[in-house]
Amino acid sequence: MIAREEQREARAYAAERLRAAGVILADEEVAAIEVADFGLGRLRETGLLVLVYVNTDRYCAKELVLYPRQTCPEHRHPPFDGTPGKEETFRCRSGSVELHVDGRRIELLPGDQHTIPPDTLHWFTAGDEGAVVSEFSSTSRDDLDVFTDPRIVR
């Protein structure tokens, strides 16, 4: 678990990076940025900063912000409620991202995108300058994500 001050600093960092990438934010959006340390307490090493624009029973749109060299750990989005699981497309807005999907390494630079099929193991790491990534997907149920590291909680 991370301290409130670290959460506040993380939200401010995410807002700054999003604005630098050309995203206009309302105050309530900044306050809604999720600071996910995955229960490990090492946010700048393993974690993710997430702004959800919309998440309905049909589609989802988010912005993902990563600190330099920060990793979102290996996980998959399993089937649920008769769906095949979440399919997601990552589009790099700034910085760079090293995406690992089914054992393949895919580098995303600004303007690059990649779609990850449902129920597919993947993880990603930001480059030395951090990253802003737009995510477009089918319905997101983060509470159902399956991580390979059993210590991770969402």
Brief sketch in words of this structure:
With 154 residues, the chain is mainly beta. Helix content is 14%, strand content 42%.
Describe the structure.
The chain is mainly β and 154 residues long. 14% of the residues lie in helices and 42% in strands. The chain is built from 2 helices and 9 strands; from the N terminus they run H-H-E-E-E-E-E-E-E-E-E. Strands 1, 2, 3, 4, 5, 6, 7, 8 and 9 form a 9-stranded antiparallel β-sheet that branches. The N and C termini lie close together (11 Å). The mean pLDDT is 97.
How is this fold's topology laid out?
Layout: H1 4-20, H2 27-31, E1 34-36, E2 48-55, E3 60-66, E4 71-76, E5 88-101, E6 104-108, E7 113-116, E8 122-137, E9 146-147
Antiparallel strand pairs: 1-2, 2-3, 3-8, 4-8, 4-9, 5-6, 5-7, 5-8
Helix content: 10-25%
**Secondary structural class:** mainly beta
Beta-strand percent range: 35-45%
Number of helices: 2
Whole-number mean pLDDT: 97
The succession of helices and strands, N to C, reads: HHEEEEEEEEE
Low-confidence stretches: none
Distance between the termini: 11 Å
Could you give the count of β-strands? 9
- General shape: globular
Gyration radius, in Å = 14 Å
Largest sheet: 9 strands, antiparallel
